[in-house]
Write a structure and sequence with these properties.
- About 30% of the residues lie in helices and about 25% in strands.
- With about 400 residues, it is of the alpha+beta class.
- Helix 1 packs across helix 10 and helix 3 runs antiparallel to helix 4 (about 100-105).
- The protein starts with 10 loop residues before the first strand and ends in an 8-residue tail after the last helix.
- Bound molecules: adenosine monophosphate.
- Adenosine monophosphate binds near residues 153 and 273.
């Protein structure tokens, strides 16, 4: 298939102006594009650097008309953008990844259904449409289980753990209290994984695709804390993850950057936790440790340009700055101390308000071999006062 090429000088539209939108904007500007950012929050980081800023609500028809008129191609920075908005834009301009891909991915039931029906490995799951059927759903899955809202959850929000029968009543009540009309949930088997991994896949409009090295991730309270690259361990696992990534994104016919979040079982088997249809937090290291970052790849893929070479210049460890971690950087002498650690690259997202669990920035530690980057990250986290687990 011949791809339509969007040349430098054109205007790329991005829905959502958080840190991912901002990093996309910087990569696009470096390649000679202009960027229109649409985010209802006027304080969103990407508005500060956008060529054109649209702070209207996503339901505003006038903003939609202006945004569609101005842009040559549209993408989005996260999956909770209204699919309806993408469908409307798609009638006028290319949207990549497409609204059809977004619709499958933004609903956990649709996404898991798509993966399972295509033979891809996922934890066993059941659909829940009314809270009082929770016991039936859990009986089908077994204990322990995890109940998640089908839409809008992220970073561990909208999740309930069900370890034993006595949890059913408590969770049922919590679901009923937070339920909105038409709300659905997915009940999944709680996987006792050996480790969490992720693989970034880039696929162009012509169907060519490439993957980044396998990454190993550690989460705290459902939020990504650290990423190590390349993931230590067997090459065979990395090869299987890459092959899985190519097959899933081909099957989706996705154009852009995708991330598969994976669980590795003690047997070595890989299960897909979820797919993100966009650059991912676990791929932020690519900004500093790769010749072409995940954000530049997104620009290239949606513009029909050749994909960049995936070349890891150095092993890396990325540490997220979450909530109060950022205080020392914004108000104290943290930046100076950090900038003195060899191989440390600091990214602050410029968010005005520090809130608990909010991603405020990240630091990439470069070092070869990986153990050197790990030592630097450990030294930094000890300085922050949040001790890493022994392996991080
Ligand atoms: P999610 O929002 O689905 O990406 O989940 C956030 C984190 O919760 C994941 O990175 C895992 O650490 C954990 N998690 C999610 N689903 C499961 C599951 N089925 N079994 C075990 N842990 C899970």
């Amino acid at each position: 298939m011949k791809a339509v090429v969007i040349e430098p000088g054109s205007v790329l539209g991005v829905l959502g102006g958080g840190q991912l939108g901002a990093m996309f904007t910087m990569a696009a500007c470096r390649l000679g594009y202009h960027v229109a950012v649409w985010d209802p929050d006027p304080e969103a980081p990407a508005h500060r650097i956008a060529t054109h800023s649209f702070p209207g609500p996503f339901t505003d028809h006038h903003t939609l008309a202006c945004f569609a008129e101005l842009t040559n191609v549209v993408t989005y920075e996260w999956e909770n953008i209204p699919a309806e908005l993408c469908r409307s834009l798609e009638q006028q301009k290319p949207v990549r990844p497409s609204s059809a891909v977004l619709s499958v991915i933004q609903d956990r039931l649709e996404q898991k259904g798509f993966l399972a029906s295509n033979g891809f490995p996922v934890p066993s799951f059941a659909r829940l449409t009314v809270p009082d059927q929770l016991a039936t759903a859990v009986r089908h899955i077994g204990y322990p289980a995890l109940c998640k809202t089908a839409t809008s959850g992220y970073d561990g929000k909208g999740q309930w753990r069900i370890s034993q029968e006595s949890d059913i009543r408590v969770v049922e009540r919590s679901l009923s209290e937070s339920a909105r009309p038409g709300m659905r949930w997915i009940v999944e088997s709680l996987i006792s994984f050996e480790r969490e991994l992720s693989i970034l896949v880039v696929r162009g409009a012509d169907g060519q695709s490439c993957t980044y090295p396998l990454a190993e991730n550690e989460h705290e309270e459902g939020i990504l804390r650290t990423t190590k690259v390349p993931a230590p361990g067997s090459l065979a696992v990395a090869e299987r993850a890459a092959a899985l990534g190519h097959r899933v994104v081909d099957r989706l016919e996705g154009v852009g950057v995708f991330c598969l979040e994976l669980f590795q079982l003690p047997s070595g088997e890989l299960l897909i936790n979820e797919i993100a249809p966009r650059p991912h937090n676990s791929g932020h290291y690519t900004l500093d440790a790769c010749s072409v970052s995940q954000f530049e790849q997104q620009v290239r893929a949606i513009c029909g340009m050749p994909l960049g070479e995936v070349h890891l210049l150095s092993p890396a460890v990325m540490v997220n700055l979450i909530g109060d971690d950022a205080t020392t950087f914004v108000k104290g002498a943290g930046s100076r101390t950090l900038l003195g650690i060899p191989g440390a690259v600091l990214h602050l997202y410029g968010k005005r308000e520090i809130r608990p669990r909010r991603k405020m920035g990240h630091v990439t530690f470069l070092g070869d071999p990986l153990s050197l980057a790990l030592d630097r990250a450990k030294q930094f986290r000890e300085g922050l006062g949040n001790s890493p687990s022994p392996s991080a």
